Queue: 2 jobs
Job 1
Amino acid sequence: MMRNDNCMFIGLTGGIGSGKSTVTSYLKSKDYIVIDADVLSKTVVEPGEKAYFDIVAEFGESILNGDGSINRKQLGDIIFQDEVQRKKLNEIVHPEVRRLMMELLHEFSFHNSIVFADIPLLIESDLMSTFDAIWLVYAAEDICLERIMKRDGISREDALLRIRAQMAIDEKKIVSDLILYNTADVEFLFRQIDEALILSINK
Ligand code: ATP
């Protein structure tokens, strides 16, 4: 696929509740392009898309809503406790997300000096090598815990389960090129982003 080599691809990741959305909102407010992997994973399963037909073939029409769209909640319940089913779903959805991600990255590369992609499970995925740099939005586990309890109105136990379902954020630090410390107020975070942008643009 054609790509503008003067454009940098930056992958943004973090842990659950570490502050990815806070970072992407800030970048968007400064007119940077941020591709959202969660949005792509919804787009690729819309009726008529390849993954849509593959999911219906695999899981049956009982996982459809009345309007023919996929009932994500129902599908989520099926794969939640069943690793085999989860693997099947991922094998359908991931290649399509990857394909669309590459398409968009390359398209945007012709009109932008940096294109960001917000990918919660970037380090766990096979997309790492696509990016020129990985930026990690970091906060220690106990801070993430407090933030998601407050944001989602859930108990400490539930928040901990969600955190523990992912790779430990301290492990993600090791493979990241830049760490944005979201450990104080948002101004502290935004200042680091400004500095990182200046360094990236002058590269
Ligand atoms: P998820 O992975 O669950 O989508 P996320 O990494 O996108 O989470 P955010 O939604 O940006 O994280 O942040 C989690 C919560 O913490 C939000 O309610 C957000 O407003 C709050 N938050 C983020 N950064 C700070 C900060 N520096 N100080 C106080 N609250 C913060």
Job 2
Amino acid sequence: MNPLAGSIPARADMEQRAQAVLLGSAVGDALGATTEFMNPAQIREKFGIHKDIVGGGWLNLDPGQVTDDTEMTLCVARAIAAKGEWDLVGIADRFAQWLEGNPVDVGVTCRRGIEGYRAKRQLQVPPGKKDAGNGAAMRIAPVAIFSLGNEEGMARLAVEQARLTHNHPLSDAACVAVGIMVQWGILGYPAQKLRAVADELVDRHPEFLFEDYDGGTTAYVVDTMRTALEAFFTTGCFEECLIKTVNRGGDADTTAAIAGAIAGARYGLEAIPSRWLLALDPALRDELSLLALRLLNLSPLFSGKRES
Ligand code: MN
Ligand code: MN
């Protein structure tokens, strides 16, 4: 089936949705980093409801500062944008450079994968039981924008970029599901279409059952996805979705980075509260906005090339 059959939204509409994907993910990271590794009771006690980008958290961040989720997303986006085409080696090089710069945070699995690349130029880590973390799914958004108009291509590239650090069927499945939801959001598909993607993920991997989920929000990609999907499908706007996500605590910056990408696509740029956008570093905000447009321009839908 051609997902583009019928009407597609105006270009300007897709552009602002693509920008909302990257910006939505970054504000999720900045907002959630404050409550990362807290539990809901601790969050309630300290903030009532956590809803402003104030920094702090276990990393003692400045207000608006982002973490590995956004930094690795930038590596993926910058590599593709710089080459003007898919560039797995470029992504790996940027991950390596980023790790050398002593980032504020880096996941264990990501570090191991990047070190494998540095030592052996390995572009795919071997399958690992412990590789079902959320570190690949959190940086998938640029791939979804870049491959808009070619879903199979997106699925292939999503898994390629994931396996630089994570090689596990549940991580792969999460990356592809997030990628499709982001793409369908940019294309303006209704909520029930996005729901069908999530339901299909659950059909194939029942671990991801997210309805009524109120369990822990860990770095296990299954818990991460259940948290993000539950929040997305039980709220009606970007702001509510992210507030619900970050007040669950746990791996809050990462659950909110993923929820922010999906909700950004679905609700668009105008739905992102300006107090959150303004809290980000203006240079980061500008770069994410430009990268979103650049990636969209390179996509099969806009470039006319079939293959990404
Ligand atoms: Mn993080
Ligand atoms: Mn995290």
